[in-house]
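Below is how a single chain appears once it has passed through the pipeline. First comes the sequence as given, then the structure the pipeline wrote out for it. We keep one example in the README because the format questions we get most often are answered faster by looking than by reading.
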Amino acid sequence: MAVKVQIPTPLRQYTDGQDVVEVSGTNVGEVLQALGEKYPGITERLLENGRVRRFVNIYVNDEDIRYLNDLDTPVKDGDEVAIIPAVAGGQA
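Resulting structure:
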């Protein structure tokens, strides 16, 4: 089943500049694994010790996976997975 993955600008160097790629999987973990197999180097930027890095947010159809089933969140054909780097700010 094909899932569209939106790639943020800082990670597009791993996807040959593509902003959206398609991979297969039945849950977010499988999608990220397939992404890493297709585009080596990207998974290390997203996962640490088998978990999503602290400053990376992943959404399935606009729903944060941290409030769903995390990497076990199911996906189906046509779903969209968005990788969003967290933005931190402070006072100037």
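Residues 28-38 form the longest helix (11 residues).

See the next section for the split statistics.
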